[in-house]
Write the structure tokens for this entry.
Amino acid sequence: MIALAIFSTSCKKECVTDVVASFTVPNDYNDSITFTNTSTGGKTYLWNFGDGTTSTAQNPPAHVYTSGGEKKVTLTVTNGKVSATSFAYVYPYILE
């Protein structure tokens, strides 16, 4: 399993650093990948699965890719004052 940590944080007037964006990706997958949200301090979530689709679920269901190749998956977590973004590259294998 791959664990990811915070890559960027943006602050408005006051910087509150209690938001961490992170998620895990299983080691073995094909066209269906279940991402596990391990973020802390968030109120809203935005997943971008790298194939033109997004989700605002805190814990989205397994995502099914319809094409293979490199995909950059990002998760942005906010709490109203601070946002943090984490990302990972996945390489879905499409079953025939």
The domain at 2-90 is CATH 2.60.40.10 (Immunoglobulin-like). The first strand starts at residue 2 and ends at 3.
